Amino acid sequence: IKIQIFGYYFNSPLFLAIENEKCFNSQRFFIQRSDKISYADIYIVHYFSYNQFIREYLRKNIPEKKILIIVSLEPPNVAIEENLNGNLFHEKFFYWIISYYRSSFFSIPNGNYIFSNKNKNDYTNIVNQFGSRKNACLIIINECHSSNNLRFEYIQELQNYFSVDVVGGCVNKAVPSSRFQTLLKNYKFSLAFENSLCYEYTTNKYWDSIQSGAIPIVMGFGKNLSHLIPNSFINIFDFETPKLLAQHLNLVSSN
Prior knowledge:
This is Fucosyltransferase. The protein is of the alpha/beta class and 255 residues long. It has 2 domains: 2-107, no CATH class; 123-254, Glycosyl transferase family 10, C-terminal domain (Rossmann fold, 3-Layer(aba) Sandwich). It has 7 helices and 13 strands. The strands form 3 sheets. The protein has a 6-stranded parallel β-sheet with strand order 4-1-5-6-7-8, with no helix packed on it. Helix 2 links the parallel strand 6 (66-71) and strand 7. The longest helix has 13 residues, at 242-254.
């Protein structure tokens, strides 16, 4: 079986790991990475490159119906903005989807967890470490153009009652994802607000908060949150107003 990987993932190689010699399953396939269409059984394309792929593919006049795997870890509205239309070429492809949706053909969540019966953390150290942090929320916003304008309105209202530090490209300078956890380790709380309010859509904002020990505050209205760690987060929609949320944050930080 021949697999062609077409295009890139935000200027980085797409699925670089499957070419690793340590990946046993990949040795069963012939894997080619190219921006030029060649004959293959399966094509893997990031949705940013989908339209370019279709243009190149149609020029080849390949008669057989192939498997086209589209990689999309972003919310649906982003795919719509890119004019991604998978309904046009069903006579050419069997469409498989890789996304964060658990119902996808291949599901790749931004994070996961397993339950453990062993607690490796010392309770006293946790209390002391948490108490030494800044009693404030941190939110990192690099993407200014967002379909979720509610998060900006909510932040402004919350700042009237609780300290919120906003950093990132929307404020002054973009923060690389490699620095997220370093910054979050200085704060008790993190506003893990996504750029879109979509079902099951949770990015590294939540998981970076967990890894750094900051309590994530999420926008969970109309979303399935069962993929998150139980009792690990605060949902703003459990409080009628930002003021009531602020009161709860003060209670948690002093408890």
